[in-house]
Write a structure and sequence with these properties.
The complex is a heterodimer of chains A (195) and B (106).
Chain A: H1 12-21, H2 27-48, H3 51-67, H4 78-100, E1 113-115, E2 122-124, H5 125-137, H6 141-152, H7 157-164, H8 168-191
Antiparallel strand pairs in A: 1-2
Helix pairs in contact in A: 1-2, 2-3, 2-4, 3-4, 5-8, 6-8, 7-8
Chain B: H1 17-25, H2 30-42, H3 44-58, H4 73-90
The chains are: A mainly alpha (195), B mainly alpha (106).
């Protein structure tokens, strides 16, 4: 995406205003994307860990942003607004895969086997992911989001809190409950001999 | 969490996963941690199994993320094409397709 003639001197907010005035012209919006595409790509990759999924998520987010530019109020930077949309699109993609029962995107690790002494001697990663998916599906949405942001995407507690618009303590609490619920689910299956 | 008791035989509830996660996250006060460790000593086998379950879950966490340095050319081209197509839909005389995908609310 090369700089559009005459658009490179405009601020992001000015480009958005130009886009709103003339949505049939892809130039202003494309210039915004050209400036911030690497950030957006990075956000999607961090959440999804898979280039194909990240590409889909960013594209979906960009189209949403293109159509919804009139809802941008200028309270956050354009880049920040776009990052939030991309992050939400990425989380929705993960959640949709979990809910549909398909293989979760971005297998968390490449390990084939996970050694775990105690109730669970050794299980395959596939079994573990299956249990994980089942347990995650049962979490309240806010707990699920905290889990995805921190334990799946690897965001810091501070970044996750900023994204969710809540204090760090709230994210910690949601994460604790999510991890505990998942471990409980895991433990109960192990006790029943289903693992 | 209740304060620790001086009586070792005082009834203590079973250790919960939530308490163990809090212990690992370092969010317990010194008093709470002491009380929890007393509880853990009452049923070491069960607690060991619970900790093993938490270990297994922790191993599922992704490795450290490495920032990309560029967007692949074919990916950027695909986005550009999608934007151009969308602009074509929104040009005067064309009906824009409905929105309804990701939202910007956090």
């Amino acid at each position: 995406m090369s700089p559009e003639h005459g658009l490179a001197d405009l601020s992001d907010a000015e480009l958005f205003a130009a886009h709103r005035a003339s949505p049939g012209d892809p130039g202003p919006f494309s210039e915004v994307v050209r400036r911030h595409k690497l950030q957006l790509w990075s956000v999607a990759l961090q959440v999804l860990r898979d280039p194909d999924d990240a590409s889909d998520a960013v594209q979906s987010a960009l189209l949403f942003a293109f159509r919804s530019a009139h809802t941008y109020r200028g309270e956050a930077s354009v880049a920040g607004w776009l990052r939030t949309i991309v992050r939400n699109a990425s989380l929705k993609l993960i959640e949709a895969r979990y809910r549909s029962g398909g293989e979760p995107v971005a297998s968390p690790t490449a390990q084939d086997h996970i050694e775990a002494p105690g109730a669970v001697a050794e299980v395959t990663a596939i079994e573990l992911r299956s249990v994980l998916r089942e347990a995650i599906a049962q979490l309240p949405e806010v707990h699920r989001r905290a889990y995805f942001l921190v334990d799946h995407a690897g965001f810091s507690l501070a970044t996750a809190a900023e994204h969710e618009g809540v204090p760090i303590g709230t994210i910690k609490s949601r994460l604790t409950r999510a991890r505990a619920r998942i471990a409980e689910h895991w433990g109960s299956l192990a006790r029943e001999g289903n693992l | 969490m209740s304060t620790p008791s001086d009586d070792e035989n005082a009834p203590l509830g079973p250790v919960s996963y939530e308490e163990l996660v809090n212990l690992r996250m370092g969010t317990l006060s010194a008093e709470e941690e002491e009380s929890l460790r007393m509880q853990m000593q009452r049923d070491p086998e069960r607690v060991a199994a619970m900790l093993a379950n938490l270990d297994a879950l922790e191993q599922l966490r992704p490795p450290e993320f490495i920032e990309p340095t560029e967007v692949p050319g074919d990916v950027a081209a695909r986005w550009r094409k999608a934007i151009e197509d969308e602009a074509g839909h929104q040009a005067p005389g064309n009906d824009p397709p409905g929105a309804g995908e990701p939202d910007s609310s956090a």
